[in-house]
Design brief:
The structure holds 2 protein chains of 2 kinds. Chain A has helices spanning 15-27, 40-54, 58-76, 85-95, 98-106, 118-133, 149-152, 155-158, 160-178, 184-210, 233-242, 244-267, 287-301, 373-376, 378-381, 400-412, 461-464, 467-495, 498-507, and strands at residues 218-224, 272-274, 280-283, 304-312, 319-325, 331-336, 354-357, 360-364, 386-388, 391-392, 415-418, 420-421, 424-428, 434-439, 447-453. By secondary structure, chain A is α/β, with parallel strands linked by helices. Chain A has 2 domains: 15-211 and 466-495; 218-463, 4-Layer Sandwich (Nitrilase/N-carbamoyl-D-aminoacid amidohydrolase). Mean pLDDT of chain A is 91; it is low at 502-508. By secondary structure, chain B is of the alpha/beta class. Chain B folds into 2 domains: 15-213 and 486-499; 219-459, 4-Layer Sandwich (Nitrilase/N-carbamoyl-D-aminoacid amidohydrolase), CATH 3.60.110.10. In chain B, the strands form 3 sheets. In chain B, strands 1, 2, 3, 4, 5, 6 and 15 form a 7-stranded mixed sheet that branches. In chain B, strands 7-8-9-11-13-14 form a 6-stranded mixed sheet, with helices on one face. In chain B, α6 packs across α18 (470-499), α9 packs antiparallel against α10 (185-212) and α11 (234-243) crosses α12 (245-268). The mean pLDDT of chain B is 92. Classes of the chains: A alpha/beta, B alpha/beta.
């Protein structure tokens, strides 16, 4: 490995240009953004690093990078998150440039190619910490890479952290090569290591898809969105507080739509039917009657029915839950939404329950729950074959939730049925392959039908959990400690150098 | 642009290693192969080219690349081609090194970076020429390897598959151009940036098309299914057909019933358009009128558009393989005879290759059959005649699954139409006019084999159907021009030499 040591800042009169390029690319690299170009998620880090390493004053680099990230955040954050925009901006301003700062500080202390590891480790650690502390971890960087099914297979091993690391590592490797003027004989070994690793990742992904077993059995699953829940939300909440009878009437109309569609799809052969999040909105006192009707519906049609219910109440926390009925009309699963920061909602315990059916083991979570990769790993351990992830979203965050659901499917080796009010509905197999997709917005019927494999596949990730995320955190902490120790040592060495020694001598 | 001139052969003691690398990469980069790694389709030409340019003797380079090609083709050859296999291997092996030879001979005549154009132009011309002369059309040609990359595939809406072919092979030439300059950034900067910018443009175009592609204003529920494996009982069926028409009738009637019942079920679940796979109805000419009447009645009774592929079995005249579409009034509104694979499927009638359309409340529909989809130059009628939804019923083999699904999806993007590809013994897919998968269903899964999707009722305008295979023809013209120019240059050099 090349041992040439470089110290920062480097001279580069184009420094500011690289920041602009990084910002421009960054705007297109946000998974939740409207204008996602996945490849930019690999490219923008290159230029951020170059800028940070070439900017003369580190504090200015930090400040300017913060501003750049604020601009990207302001452009890509959906308007419904506006209420939390202040905390988002404070968060990204303070923390966003941190991996770049650590890179500038620590990379020169590591020999040769090893110096490229600082940035991806710090980046992955930050991603991981964000995903585990942020109530809305939708900004986690690997979500921007959702369109590459081959690459995504990696997350069945490492979770999304492997992707986070690889995409960030490219940034520091290109800079490492850049600082060696891309001289092939100098950068050859480092470049080959990265290319070799990527080829391995691609080969793993391809091999996984090639050798994916043909499902021994499939089951017809249907789902649909019959109303825009949010369209009449103000009227609905108003009648709820003022005129309970009118509210009941409004809701009854919606129930009928869902009941009719369910009967139609069941008679066409669907054995499992899922509704979107909030499909049944009901007052606390009316709930028992509604549940009895749902049970009767499941029994009458001989289906498993995944029915999300919102239990509205006046002055206690409301419930957002998913209830699954079996063909005998029994409630076999009850799940309370645990994810998300919606105020005044009962928060679920985060335990994933399962139901054994003739069509495999089924389980279910709701909307925001899917963002918590660590919690969802239960599905990969508790033998779930088919996971229902009913959802309700906004046009601005369509279709990222669908693709996060796809990622959970690959991680845990389960089929996912994702029915989304206001978003893209998908049914995918345990390798993330699309079986059916349906967009909520066009006029016309909004039903999704798919033949879903009834058997999941084993994956490593649920067993090791977020090991790679933790490793990144540990690695970063170790680097920081090491960096501090090195600084102290070199200060001491400086203090012990001849001139200071003579001073010491005089003092004696 | 850098003007350094390089002559071939290059000195490179690793020459044979590059051939080995190219061969391995190539095995995994065949669109027809089971073991496709799409990125290797970009990588393999880099090393073939390096080998061809660094092997001392031109004829030996040609021979060895031919052998490598034979190995690659042999490994990836679908067994269903049977006795056609060996001649295909031979032909491909003999011809495939041609673009490499053209590169070695002609690129030194071009200055600097321009020399990198010879290879992609020659390769694209070669592929184009093979598609217009082969009954397999463009099926499984190198651009199909990028099937999984929806963003890249959007380029097809402009240039057809030829633009994609060009950028894949240009990478090979650009990397070699840089390699011969030791990848020294100062020398290769401009060339590298030209290529990178072009690729960024292609990606930006693809992304922009997917972002800004109008969300469909209206969709229609479409269903399709495969109820029997046509080939499974083929010998018994043939025997019955030859010996006992009554038994044959009985056998076929059982199949009809399966299709009729599934149709009724899906129609009652709300499907407005229903497609069966190729050969779903197999019938003798004398029984055909009665069957057609029943199909009309079925469509009328369920108020659906029914796309029913029909094979008319006959004893000693050419048989017909056609697609009939019935409207909700029970009228036969479209009749299409399969035109693709002429001469490859026994004594079959060959359609005239004209695509007909039907105006429906759910957009304009049209239909072709299986092998028809490989002839991109014919299918582009769909992009010009207002088609919104194209039916491409198919019957395939396990070894060629999912090749025909890919053909169908690529035609959909080229022509800006939704495609309904219901395939007996293969992957069925329904895509929107941008190639996005709305539903997919594998025939080999156990369980019900029904495919349902909400399909956009409106297609989108694309350039390709209007310019057709212009880029293919341009590359052919380019190669012809280069060859002439190279010859003239050679003659002139000789003259100068003899005069000196």
């Amino acid at each position: 490995m090349n041992k040439k040591q470089i110290s920062y800042p480097i001279n580069d009169r184009w420094s500011i240009l690289w920041l602009l390029v990084a910002t421009a690319l960054g705007i297109f690299s946000v998974g939740i953004g409207r204008w996602l170009i996945p490849v930019t998620a690999w490219l923008s880090a290159i230029f951020y690093i170059r800028f940070f390493r070439t900017q003369r004053r580190a504090w200015l680099a930090y400040l300017l990078t913060s501003i750049s990230i604020i601009i990207i955040t302001a452009i890509t954050t959906p308007s419904w998150m506006a209420s939390s925009i202040t905390s988002i901006i404070i968060g990204v301003t303070l923390l966003g440039p941190l991996p770049l700062f650590l890179d500038r500080w620590l990379a020169p202390r590591l020999p040769g190619f090893a110096s490229t590891l600082v940035f991806p480790l710090a980046w992955t650690a930050l991603d991981f910490i964000n995903a585990n502390t942020n109530p809305m971890p939708i900004s986690t960087s690997p979500y921007a890479l959702y369109s590459d099914l081959v690459l995504l297979q990696l997350i069945s091993l490492t979770g999304i952290w492997g992707l986070s690391f690889l995409s960030a590592w490219l940034g520091s490797i290109v800079n490492w090569a850049w600082e060696r003027e891309f001289a092939w004989h100098e950068i050859k070994r480092g470049a080959l290591i990265y290319i070799g690793l990527m080829l391995l990742v691609v080969a793993y992904g391809q091999a996984r898809l090639w050798f994916a077993p043909t499902p021994a059995q499939t089951v017809r699953v249907a789902g649909f969105t019959m109303v825009d829940w949010r369209v009449n939300q103000p009227a609905m909440t108003r009648t709820f507080t003022t005129d309970m009878e009118a509210f009941r009437q409004m809701m009854e109309e919606r129930y009928q739509l869902y009941f009719d569609a369910t009967i139609k799809e069941a008679r066409a052969g669907a054995k499992m039917i899922s509704w979107p999040e909030n499909a049944m909105t009901v007052a606390l006192e009316d709930e028992p009657a509604l549940l009895a009707r749902l049970a009767e519906l499941a029994k009458q049609e001989g289906i498993y029915l995944a029915a999300p219910i919102v239990e509205m109440s006046v002055d206690s926390p409301y419930a957002n839950k998913l209830i699954i009925f079996d063909p005998q009309g029994q409630i076999v699963l009850e799940h309370y939404k645990y994810g998300g920061a919606e105020p005044d909602r009962i928060t679920g315990d985060g335990i994933l329950h399962t139901v054994q059916t003739p069509f495999g083991v089924i389980s279910g979570i709701i909307c925001w729950d899917i963002e918590f990769q660590g919690t969802v790993t239960q599905a990969g351990r508790n033998d779930t074959d088919i996971l229902f992830t009913p959802n309700m979203t906004f046009r601005e965050t369509d279709p990222i939730f669908a693709y996060i659901a796809v990622m959970r499917a690959i991680e845990n080796g389960v089929s996912v049925v994702h029915i989304s009010d206001g978003g893209l509905s998908v049914a995918v197999d345990p390798f993330g392959r699309m079986l059916a997709t349906m967009d909520h917005y066009p006029k016309g019927e909004r039903a999704l039908v798919a033949q879903v494999p009834t058997k999941g596949v084993w994956t490593l990730y649920p067993i090791i959990g977020d090991l790679f995320g933790w490793l990144a955190v540990v690695g970063t902490v170790a680097l920081v400690i090491w960096g501090v120790v090195q600084s102290l040592l070199s200060r001491k060495a400086k203090a012990a150098s001849p001139e200071s020694q003579s001073q010491v001598g005089q003092a004696i | 642009m850098n003007g350094k001139q390089i002559t071939y052969p290059l000195q490179d003691r690793w020459s044979l290693l590059w051939l080995a690398v190219a061969t391995v990469a190539s095995i995994f980069s065949q669109a027809s192969g089971k073991w496709l790694i799409p990125i290797l389709a970009w990588v393999a030409p880099i090393f073939y080219l390096r080998f061809f340019r660094s092997e001392r003797r031109g004829w030996l380079a040609y021979l060895l690349v031919a052998v490598s090609t034979a190995v690659v083709t042999f490994i990836n050859m679908p067994p269903m081609l049977g006795t056609l296999g060996p001649p295909i291997v031979l032909l491909v092996s003999l011809l495939f090194p041609l673009p490499y030879l053209a590169d070695r001979k002609l690129s030194p005549f071009l200055p600097g970076f321009a020399s990198s154009l010879v290879f992609p132009v020659a390769m694209t011309a070669f592929i184009f020429f093979s598609t217009i002369t082969s009954p397999f059309g463009s099926s499984s040609t190198p651009p199909y390897t990028q099937y999984d990359n929806l963003v890249l595939l959007q380029l097809l809406s402009l240039t057809g598959i030829w633009g994609l072919s060009f950028v894949i092979y240009w990478l090979g030439a650009v990397v070699n151009w840089a390699w011969e300059r030791n990848f020294s950034w100062n020398e290769i900067k401009r060339g590298a940036l030209v290529y990178l910018s072009l690729m960024l443009l292609v990606i930006a175009y693809g992304e922009a098309r997917l972002w800004f592609g109008a969300k469909p204003a209206e969709t229609v529920r479409v269903a399709g299914f495969t109820m029997v494996e046509w080939r499974v009982n083929q010998p018994v069926m043939m025997e019955a057909f030859d010996s006992d028409p009554e038994v044959f009738r009985q056998m076929m009637e059982e199949r009809y019933q399966l299709y009729f019942e599934a149709t009724i079920k899906e129609a009652r679940a709300g499907a407005k358009l229903i497609s069966w796979p190729e050969n779903a109805m197999t019938v003798t000419p004398q029984d055909e009128p009665a069957l057609v009447a029943r199909l009309g009645e079925l469509a009328r009774q369920e108020s659906i558009y029914l796309a029913a592929p029909l094979v008319e079995m006959v004893v000693d005249a050419p048989y017909a393989n056609k697609l009939l579409i019935f409207d909700p009034q029970g009228e036969l509104v479209l009749e299409h005879y399969k035109y693709g694979g002429a001469g490859m499927e026994g004594n079959r009638m060959v359609g005239d290759g004209v695509l007909h359309t039907v105006q429906t409340p759910y957009g304009v529909i049209s239909g072709i059959i299986c092998w028809d989809t490989v002839l991109q130059g014919t299918v582009l009628q769909a992009g010009r005649n207002g088609t919104d939804i194209l039916f491409t019923p198919s019957l395939t083999y396990p070894e060629t699954d999912p090749m025909f699904a890919q053909n169908s999806v690529l035609r959909g993007i080229e022509n800006g139409v939704s495609t309904i590809h219901v395939s007996d013994m293969g992957l069925s897919v329904i895509t929107d006019p941008y190639g996005r998968i709305l539903a997919s269903m594998d025939h080999y899964n156990k369980g019900e084999r029904v495919l349902v999707a909400q399909v956009p009722a409106k297609g989108t305008w694309t350039l390709y159907p209007y310019i057709g295979d212009l880029f293919g023809w341009l590359s052919l013209a380019g190669v012809a021009g280069l060859v002439i120019w190279g010859t003239v240059q050679t003659l002139r050099l000789r003259k100068i030499k003899s005069a000196s």
